[in-house]
User: Fold this.
Amino acid sequence: MSRIVGILGGMGPMSTVDLMRKVTEKTPVTKEQEHLRILVDSRPQIPDRTAAILGTGPSPAPMLQESARLLERWGAEIIAIPCNSAHAFLDDVREAVSIQVLDMLGLVGQELSRSFPEGSPVGLLATTGTGEARTYHGRIPDFKLLTPSPQDQEDRVMGAIYQVKLEDRVEEPRRKLLEAAASLDPAPVALIAGCTEVELALAGADSPVPVLLPMDLLASEIVAQAWDE
Amino acid sequence: MSRIVGILGGMGPMSTVDLMRKVTEKTPVTKEQEHLRILVDSRPQIPDRTAAILGTGPSPAPMLQESARLLERWGAEIIAIPCNSAHAFLDDVREAVSIQVLDMLGLVGQELSRSFPEGSPVGLLATTGTGEARTYHGRIPDFKLLTPSPQDQEDRVMGAIYQVKLEDRVEEPRRKLLEAAASLDPAPVALIAGCTEVELALAGADSPVPVLLPMDLLASEIVAQAWDE
Assistant:
């Protein structure tokens, strides 16, 4: 029997839409009724994760915990969070509920370990908050994570992210992100699209090295964990 | 202050994803936190609406009512149902809750009245259930609704719908749907993409007459009714 999935989302809303689309596409149904039931709290009012981590804004933890508890009460049996930066608060979410909360960043680490030797340099294209909080560094200790220079991070990476969030564009953001990646030293063996907006911009991009798509991995994990024929 | 939107969905799951995407795109935010909070019950287990209307399957009404009540209890202040066939059970849903439930089909009627003289022939490309239940006919009494021949309805329209639902394809379904429309007599002044899968297939299609997109109208109505700057 399939499990009911809860999505703690809205960070931003398009990332939640994209995760739901991916889950639907990856579920091998033979008729509509076999698809997973998904309960969603798409709550864009959750405070900016980057600002909170940098100490310039309120913590999103209380609202994340509240929405997680709502999802659990509504019947969700497993929770997914389609937002990389929010994973800095994963422990807070896990404390708030007794159901399983998937770790999207841990899935990226597992995928890297399957494909590359320990210690390889890997480029992290993520929000400044994710970089500063060392959210990925903490969960992927076995690889050398490289982040762009402060100037590139601000202009190219964050510039690209806010363009995807607010203008729903991908071409110019994609160019900016690949430029930021090209300046990394040493040259990385792979890139992590470590922000859902980066993932939207880089999916299908022509990159010289493999690009890991955390939300795509999360969608596959949801189907693997929750779907039952 | 914006209102919390509830989406009673999963019929099919891609239609729900598409409505959420459209609402997000149509909301004129200047920052992420201004987007609408959306609570979703994407519940593909809701029994097939067409089968119920044709008397060959169980009624979806009890599950529709249950999910509507859940959404209301969770805090939704307005409910939208991204499924044309489910509108045959709109009165049941409205009975179950005290909050506003939008009428996607009524929006189509309003749009037709704005653009065409009363009594004009309009092609309805929808599920057999929607046609048989005369769901659109009841809500749009001022126009002459034309449906394809039983053979076209079965092979081309329902064939196209199940291809979109199960195979996530749009090109072959689009061809089939436009062929079915071309056989209507008298020639319609407009087409109603009266099933969310038909809408996915026909959005942006090169049709000789205007195609009304109910879900697009619904998304605009959600923003108009729920969003506050």
